[in-house]
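Continued from yesterday's entry.
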Amino acid sequence: MRVVVVGGGYGGLAVSVRLAKLGHDVTLVEASDRLGGALTTVETEGFAWDAGPWSLQVPAVVRDLFRKSGQALERELGGDLTPLEVVREHRFADRSVLRLPSGARRQTDAFEALGPGLGDAWDAYVSPYAEVWDVLRRHYFEEPWTPAALPREVAALLDSRAHLHRRLRKAFRDDRPAMVAGHPFVAEGHDLRNVPAWAGVVTHLEQLFGAWTVPARDGGLARLRDLLVARLATRGVTVLLDTPATDLVVRGGRVAAVATASGEVAGDAVVCAVDPRRLPVLAPHVARTMPAMPPVIAHVGVEGDLDDLPHETVLHGDPMVVVRPGGRAPEGHAALTVHGRGRLAEDLLTVLARHGTDLRQRVVARVDRTPYETVQAWGGSPHGVLWQGRGTVRRRLGPTTPVPGVYAVGAHATPGSGLAYVGLGAALVATVIGPA
């Protein structure tokens, strides 16, 4: 079967190699002059920073992608993904600090050290999510689904009126563990009052699987992009760069081609791996959703090292600042990326200095991106769809869509944004389409 994949970000790459391995004739159409989307690097003056993802949870998803599409990741990478000792460090307004490890026992101990009774409170909050993960894994993350044919236990979760803000208020009298649990969503621009309580399963995933990465010396997570691009060639995928898709062509009630400025690219099936709003045929089906806006970003190169900063540090407050050392730098220098959300009335490095880390006199290179510039560069928000209550999960497209022969994958599709969820979405689409 001829399959056209629209969008060469991580979702497009992942679904293309899976479908090609299943024997389909795959053409990948990408608007820009390079593949990878957010899974790439920003480079200037000898520095290179991960443009998007810096770590991942559920590493089995990436390993499965490589194994199901060709050689094992370890052989391609020259070694396995690297586990991080600390998922992230949280620094609070009262100057207290929590270094969040993986593992239930270690997390309980870390919270107990933060405050008496917080260890038991954290365990009581996270433990029920083990059952939530089991239900979602079997019937939502790993099995194709449609809103009209959901198992009762999954429908009960997805349709629950409970939201994460209420769950956190009930679970913690201390704001600090609530900030830790809510951080993954706040960092992506969501209001916790609009995030379903079941989505908090991410805390269980971080506890169970930890955080993993590819070291900067080996190319960072952008190395996965390089390996997948090479696999496109191995699997015979046709890649059309600088070819923006303008719409889908529907004939006889079924998709027949992808329209581009250069003409139509015929296909028996089409996989939308971009924001569906960019394709007029799909746009009406996602009219009730909104994109989650990226943060303000500063990629910074400095003289000297950054020994006092762990892999990721969250400075809680308004604005909230996230600091991620990492990337390639000339000898005697270091690279870091700073994200900001909230009331940003001053420069991000000034905010960082107020929190005790003043790098302003050491800066030798810098690349800034506004949320608008990030969306323009990647053709959509890397954080996908904004949570607007319990109905949001059913308003996203994927793995199928209302248009026969059209499927959806990526941050804007089911099951959501992030390397793990997007990778699971690619596997779902490959399962629905099946072998050639």
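--- second protein ---
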Amino acid sequence: MATKLKSQSDHVSKQVNAETNPRFVAVSVLENVAKGGYSNLSLNASLDDAQLSAVDAGLCTEIVYGVLQHQMTLDFWLKPFIKQPAKVKPWVLILLRTALFQMQYLDKVPTRAVFDETIQIAKQRGHEGIRRFVTGVLHAADRHGFADLATIKDPLTRLSTTYSVPMPWVQQMRKTVGDDKTRQILASINQPAFQSVRLNPALGERQALLPQLTAAGLKWTDSEVSGEGLRINAGHPAGTPPFNEGLITIQDESAMLPVEALAPQPGDAVLDACAAPGGKTTQIAAQLNPSKGGHVTALDLHAHKVALIEANARRMQVADRVTAEQLDARKSAQQFGDEAFDRILVDAPCSGLGLLRRKPEIRYAKTLADSKQLQQIQLAILDAVAPTLKKNGILVYSTCTILKQENDDVATAFVKAHSDFELVPVETVHHLKENRSTPWLTIYPDDFGSDGFFVCAFRKRHDND
């Protein structure tokens, strides 16, 4: 229990600066996320604009991700102290969440500092009534402590609240993987994400590249997930000479697997149907030889994302084998005609529930209805690219979600609708889950500490197959 602090009648006179105070910045970021912004983009933009020390930027980051990861738990703890929740302004609720998160999860942050600055932010952003309300809630919480999650009687509600994952997602996970695996997944997603990079074989052999990473102050271990992956243990890859020169790119280990399954050959014509920002495009391109005709066509709906693909291709020094086009992948057949490509990758738009470690807000922003709608888009893209694949060509379908309806069900429906395609076993460099019972590969967030991912491969039959 925290030590007792100032009485509710005490005023905090110290002003906090919106540009230099990490708690103030964190509240603003969380407000933006609540309105539909992405946590990583909102945080990065705010940190670029703010004038925070490295330590304060770290605190701000920890508060933002911590509140998102534990939001439902924090609201459970807040509930006894808020008599009329409907009347609480959204930013005030966010402010209170940040305070409780610090009190419960950040042992090294003095409770007095949390109280003082939270109350001052309430006063500066609101009015005297809001200051009094926030002060009252914080002191009541300090006096009475927080409710025990074990007192939640319903097991599923307790699981949902403990790990801050809305009930529909918990129910879907249970249907797919059962109770024990669901608990393991939920327990893993609020842990810090590992940072990983992919080596670029277009610029040299592995042993020639690694000393340059050492010279840049990076320390790593080889990835257990991907053949070209490294898990970074020390240092920050972005902005280092190896990153700027294209020797490495930042990419999750699981996200490298679809291209491993695709296994492009040097002279292949490849379509990357949903390509932005270009991580998988450049991974494909690195395995192609333009002198043998190897080329990858990368599509995205939006012009600014096409520009991102092109910028990544330049940085990775593979622009000579990449063409980025602004095109809806569902129009691929009209654009390219029949049998234009040897290999096709459809890394489809999805609910993203495999990314909860890196983008914790997804759990609140997406719904089951969204997932169902995405399933229709996924099937439409697969239907559209199917005619453009050559006979005996390989089509890889992947998502960064762990929902059966966007994964297994899509793969099954596609094969059922296209008799000229057959499922083939997904193969990876490290032979992941080699004894699985399905031809597709599902990586869950708790399996290796990487993102959740689904990878499925199809072969287009010859007429005489």
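Residues 153-189 form one domain. The chain has four domains: 22-147, 153-189, 195-250, 253-460. Will compare against the first tomorrow.
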